[in-house]
Design brief:
single chain; mainly alpha; rod-shaped; Ribbon_hlx_hlx; Arc_DNA-bd_dom; DNA-binding; Arc_rbn_hlx_hlx; DNA binding
């Protein structure tokens, strides 16, 4: 996989890596890991929300009245 960054992104990433004493590669990998974890959490929340909304549809309807 190749990752193409805009020039401003490349420069900002380079500066951040220098400030943190880390490689640009390590920062990008961490960002990807965070993104994947957040999306997995969102998927879980959506799934559980749908499950409990369906199971408590009558109660939710009455609360909305």
């Amino acid at each position: 996989m190749n990752l193409r960054l805009r020039d401003d992104q490349q420069e900002a990433l380079k500066l951040r890596a220098e400030e943190e004493g880390r490689s640009m590669h390590a920062i990008v990998l961490q960002a990807i890991d965070r993104y994947l974890e957040q999306e997995a959490d969102r998927t879980t929340v959506r799934r559980l929300g749908a499950k409990y909304a369906a199971g408590h549809a009558d109660l939710l309807r009455r609360l909305g009245e």
